[in-house]
Specification:
Layout (H helix, E strand, L loop, with lengths): L2 H33 L8 E2 L2 H18 L27 H10 L3 H25 L4 H12 L2 H5 L4 H23 L2 H15 L4 H20 L11 H33 L12 H6 L16 H7 L18 H13 L3 H16 L7 H8 L13 H22 L6 H28 L9 H24 L2 H27 L4 E2 L2 H12 L14 E2 L18 H4 L2 E2 L9 H8 L1 H5 L7 E4 L9 H14 L9 H5 L10 H5 L5 E3 L2 E6 L2 E8 L3 E8 L4 E5 L2 E3 L2 E3 L3 E6 L2 E9 L6 H26 L1
Parallel strand pairs: 3-4
Antiparallel strand pairs: 1-2, 5-6, 5-9, 7-8, 8-14, 9-13, 10-11, 10-14, 12-13
Length: about 750
């Protein structure tokens, strides 16, 4: 090869690298340009993020910087096994790494928010390149994907947002494994899937696994020429099964600590350990058929915000199915641009998910509850829309690939179909919005920003139809050079307007709230251990909460590390709620002197009827008497009151308060001394969970459930040293297995990447 040829090859490689880098640089630049206010000191995240997940991020950041994992959170709800709640990402390595480098404050959380958002767009880039979509097509799809109804709606709930961000990466590696018949990509898909489970709403993690199963099934049944599965059906099924098994094994090992916590550790602690009622699953936060109009306009969320009487069982953050005008139009065109059973399969899966969002309006969600057991454990049918939006993005990528393959010939099939789809869908959107205005609000403005919504509805859909029509009737040169540029520009404008329409449900920009969070951060304490001085507990940390938040449950105490008896937690327990709402019971668990002694402690079944009798007795005597429960009974949600005499509860007496000398109080350990007035039982008003072990005066002792939610142990007269230690099921074996699997897969991926670069 001559020097001239070498130079040409080097230049070609350099141009190719710049082109590839540009596609990866587009998402962060575009996202920051459009939504920079979300990641600045001019706003804070709204609702769930502000009140729940941002405080947990602060707690995780402090634990990461102290290199101490938090298995038991003593600051929330009288103590909680919050590591088992993947929404709060206390075991997530991805969140931990961000927290380690960017700190525990609002800006650190905003950085995690931004990076997770961009990570999802980069997943679309990787998947799009794998599906051979052109770079301009990937940018068009990403412009809509970044500001789709799920990302904008779930901006206030990053645990759901992260589930979508990881999905394209999992699907990419799984599809590579199917096409290339290699095990490593399937293992990598499992690793990504497992890591995603540690920082995502677990219901979506389970559904993502099912979606991957449907993807493999479709690839096996309907192999395309480029799928790499043009073999006998038997071999295709074997290959698909192997890929799913490898992915599943690796993923389950990585998520096993949290999975074990959900399946084992929270039994007896929370009512959520059992399946949810069917009525709750199909009716809480559904999408109404009328709100499906959101495919045409991201403004539907604002309609719900300012007219809350519309769609009463819907949540304004969970109703938008918007995927971007370009992605929606191109997805429709892709179904007819090529005879492909695989694409129709994908659309059928997406349609199944879309119908499932309707909850009780159709029987589909109920059928899933009846015949697919895992779906009984999570609610919010509207979350199924995530897979509708993602599948439209995939189909749109196929459409842009078709455009690129035909751009140099006189074939404008895709543009022609896209023109027809844009006209049809745009007309449907305009008619629906007009009819809605006339019927719902008498032709008046729906809400603030309705003018911008009209501009979007008429302008973006009209421009899309015009651009596709122009591409249809133009020359191959125009379709090859000008059409892609105009499509990217229009998609970016669409994303900008979508953000502005959804901005009120994505962040808080009021100065009073910004100052409030500065006051919270001023109280930040970096130590994750309460210590002896932190043993005193309050009912709720409402001392400096603005009146607009009065009565709302939140987790702001995690920033200042104050112990509270009740804050926000998905691990609800009916007895715990009743304690917090009954003054005499609540007072027994507050302050520093919240340890109680009783000589005679009857064992009763932890049933609702017994609790009501117990509460009545406590009110009558003005104190919370001590009762105990068997471990087996507390672990069974349907315990029966067999052979119990009501007279025993009526005879309960007030306990004796004993003042503890706290020796050690950490996130996973509590050691103290007390002087007991006699032989009997000691009740410590810290929540019970099956992972708690204890020694009394150096002797191992069973930790009995007491007073329905607390812990009690036997003591002898005189001085006693009690040492509680939290060791959840599978610790430390599952934690080592999870960390080891992540490390092993990281090394495997690194070695594979190096080998590929050397070739």
């Amino acid at each position: 090869m001559t020097d001239s040829n070498r130079q040409q090859v080097a230049q070609a490689r350099w141009r190719a690298w710049l082109k590839r880098a540009g596609v990866y640089f587009f998402p962060p630049i575009y996202l920051f340009f459009v939504a920079h206010v979300l990641f600045s000191d001019k706003s804070i995240p709204i609702w769930d993020a502000e009140q729940q997940q941002m405080p947990y991020y602060s707690l995780l950041a402090d634990s990461t910087r102290s290199f101490t994992p938090i298995l038991w959170n003593p600051y929330s709800s009288g103590g909680a096994p919050d590591y088992a709640i993947t929404d709060y990402f206390l075991l997530s390595p991805t969140v931990g790494i961000v927290a380690l480098f960017f700190g525990s404050g609002v800006h650190g959380y905003q950085m995690y928010w931004f990076l997770m958002w961009v990570f999802g767009a980069w997943g679309i880039v990787a998947l799009g390149r794998h599906l051979k979509a052109p770079d301009w097509g990937i940018c068009v799809v990403n412009a809509g994907f970044l500001f789709s109804g799920f990302y904008c709606g779930q901006a206030q709930n990053p645990s759901s947002l992260s589930a979508l961000s990881f999905l394209p990466w999992v699907v990419w590696r799984l599809d590579v494994a199917l096409q290339e018949r290699r095990a490593r990509p399937a293992l990598e898909a499992g690793a990504i899937f497992g890591v995603s489970a540690l920082c995502s709403y677990f219901g979506l993690t389970a559904l993502s696994g099912c979606y991957c199963g449907m993807w493999v099934m479709g690839r096996t049944l309907f192999a395309e020429e480029d799928s790499g599965l043009n073999e006998s059906p038997k071999k295709r099924w074997i290959a698909g099964a192997k890929a799913l098994v490898l992915m599943g094994v690796v993923g389950i090992v990585i998520m096993s600590p949290s999975l074990a916590g959900m399946l084992v550790e929270i039994k007896g602690y929370s009512d959520r350990a059992s399946a949810l009622p069917r009525e709750v699953v199909i009716s809480e936060n559904v999408i109404y058929p009328g709100s499906l109009f959101s495919f045409a306009s991201p403004y539907v969320s604002m309609i719900k915000r300012y007219h809350n009487n519309f769609w009463p069982d819907a949540n304004l953050c969970l109703i938008s199915v918007y995927a971007g005008v370009a992605a929606t139009v191109l997805a429709c065109a892709s179904l007819f641009a090529k005879r492909s059973a695989w694409r129709r399969w994908l659309f059928a899966v997406a349609l199944l998910c879309l119908v499932s969002t309707l909850g009780y309006h159709t029987p589909v969600r109920g059928w899933l509850y009846d015949f697919f057991f895992p779906t009984r454990y999570f609610r919010h049918p509207a979350l199924f829309r995530m897979y509708w939006i993602f599948t439209l993005a995939v189909l749109a990528l196929y459409a842009t690939r078709d455009c690129a393959e035909r751009s140099d010939v006189d074939d404008a099939t895709v543009q022609r179909l896209a023109f027809k789809a844009a006209c049809a869908l745009g007309v449907v959107g305009v008619v629906w919005m007009t009819a809605f205005k006339m019927v719902a609000v008498g032709g008046g403005a729906l809400a603030p920003l309705s003018g911008l919504a009209d501009i979007h509805l008429f302008g973006i859909w009209g421009a899309m139809a015009g651009l596709c029509g122009l591409g249809w009737r133009s020359t191959p040169k125009f379709r090859q050079r000008v059409f892609p540029v105009l499509m990217v520009a229009l998609a970016c404008l669409d994303g900008l307007i979508s953000f502005e329409l959804n901005r009120p449900i994505m962040c808080i920009e009021r100065q009073g709230d910004l100052q409030f969070w500065k006051a919270i951060e001023a109280k930040h304490r970096t130590s994750i251990n309460p210590g002896a001085e932190g043993f005193a507990r309050t009912a709720r940390s409402d001392a400096f909460v603005p009146s607009s938040y009065a009565g709302m449950l939140h987790n702001w105490n995690l920033v200042s590390k104050d112990l509270v008896f009740r804050n926000y937690s998905p691990l609800t327990n009916g007895f715990h709620v009743a304690f917090s709402e009954t003054h005499v019971l609540l007072q027994s668990a507050l302050g520093f002197e919240r340890v109680w002694f009783a000589a005679n402690v009857p064992e009763i079944a932890p049933t609702k009827a017994n609790f009501e009798a117990y509460k009545a007795r406590a009110i009558a005597i003005g104190a919370a008497p001590v009762v105990a429960h068997s471990r087996d009974a507390i672990l069974k949600p349907n315990a029966k009151d067999e052979g119990f005499l009501a007279s025993e509860i009526a005879a309960l007496q007030a306990p004796v308060n004993v003042v503890p000398t706290i020796l050690e109080y950490t996130t996973n350990r509590l050691t103290f001394k007390i002087v007991a007035p006699g032989n009997g039982w000691l009740l410590i008003t810290e929540r019970w969970a099956r992972g708690w072990n204890a020694t009394v005066n150096g002797q191992p002792t069973e930790v009995r459930p007491g007073n329905f939610i607390f812990r009690c142990v036997p003591v002898v007269q005189g001085e006693n040293r009690i040492d509680f230690n939290y060791r959840p099921f599978g610790f430390p074996e599952l934690f080592y297995a999870s960390a080891g699997m992540m490390l092993a897969m990281g090394l495997v991926t690194l070695v594979g990447t190096i080998r590929r670069l050397r070739k």
